[in-house]
Structure to design on (281 residues):
């Protein structure tokens, strides 16, 4: 288990994190969310021992956490641009004293569709392929804790699916995974839990299972003719639709039936998403 207790950090007079506490069990994928400047990257860097904390404890299996058990995919790619793909991975596996080095590198290059680029300089690769190489660097030492800061940035649909496939494997291998992302669709496919940071504190800490169990339901209608019902808690008007949060299942079903009778298009009917939860703050 990864356990964070009363973690705090200031930059001069700016308080970034204040008494942050949470624990994550093996085999769980947790999304750390928040606006820019909310402390996500600061939190990750303190867990990784890349940034000194002001106070608090970070423990793994009741011991002080060690950098060697962690894999990190940073928001800004940190690759040696003048190395070839193979040279870079050989350097990484050498630092971590990886056995069967060549076989391991070849396995990952084939898995990520990069084998044909193994002798290419990194600066000649596309952004998507550089991001895939960064994922290999993060995972090739078989870490127990994996931290990914905006891993889906710059990826097309096909490469996002490749990343999701590998992240799901981490869950099956009982790894602890922390991910930050401004792209909600992929994280909603894989995350077990969401932690939302705002004003230096944790404002939301909820599992996907508990979100689904909430009595409130969401209806999104593809037009802007507003519904009026006392059981509607809130409305969010988008470009082409309106999203309603409704008090309970029974009220939501009655509204859905009425909309169907009026031949209006329902684009979503179901449980709250983490985006809905955040917008209620």
């Amino acid at each position: 288990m990864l356990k964070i207790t009363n973690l705090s950090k200031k930059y001069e007079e700016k308080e970034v994190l204040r008494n942050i506490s949470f624990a994550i069990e093996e085999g769980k994928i947790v999304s750390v969310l928040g606006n820019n400047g909310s402390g996500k990257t600061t939190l990750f860097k303190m867990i990784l021992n890349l940034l000194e904390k002001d106070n608090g404890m970070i423990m793994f299996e009741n011991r002080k956490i060690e950098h060697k058990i962690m894999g990190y995919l940073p928001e800004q790619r940190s690759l040696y641009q003048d190395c070839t793909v193979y040279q870079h991975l050989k350097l990484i596996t050498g630092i971590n004293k990886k056995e069967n080095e060549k076989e391991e590198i070849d396995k990952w290059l084939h898995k990520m569709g990069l084998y044909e680029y193994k002798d290419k300089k990194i600066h000649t690769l596309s952004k998507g392929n550089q991001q895939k190489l960064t994922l290999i660097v993060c995972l090739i030492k078989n870490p127990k804790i994996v931290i990914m800061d905006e891993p889906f940035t710059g990826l097309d649909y096909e490469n996002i699916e490749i990343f999701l496939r590998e992240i799901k494997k981490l869950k099956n291998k009982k790894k602890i995974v922390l991910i930050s992302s401004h792209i909600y669709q992929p994280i909603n496919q894989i995350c077990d839990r969401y932690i939302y940071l705002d004003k230096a504190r944790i404002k939301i800490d909820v599992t996907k299972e508990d979100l689904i169990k909430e009595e409130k339901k969401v209806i999104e209608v593809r037009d802007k003719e507003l519904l009026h019902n006392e059981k509607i808690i809130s409305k969010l008007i988008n470009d082409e639709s309106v999203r309603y949060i409704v008090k309970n299942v029974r009220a939501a079903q009655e509204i859905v039936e009425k909309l169907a009778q009026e031949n209006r298009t329902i684009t979503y009917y179901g449980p709250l998403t983490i985006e809905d939860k955040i917008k209620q703050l």
About this structure: Residues 95 and 210 are 42 Å apart (CA to CA). The chain is about 30% helix and 30% strand. The mean pLDDT is 93. The two ends are 30 Å apart (CA to CA).
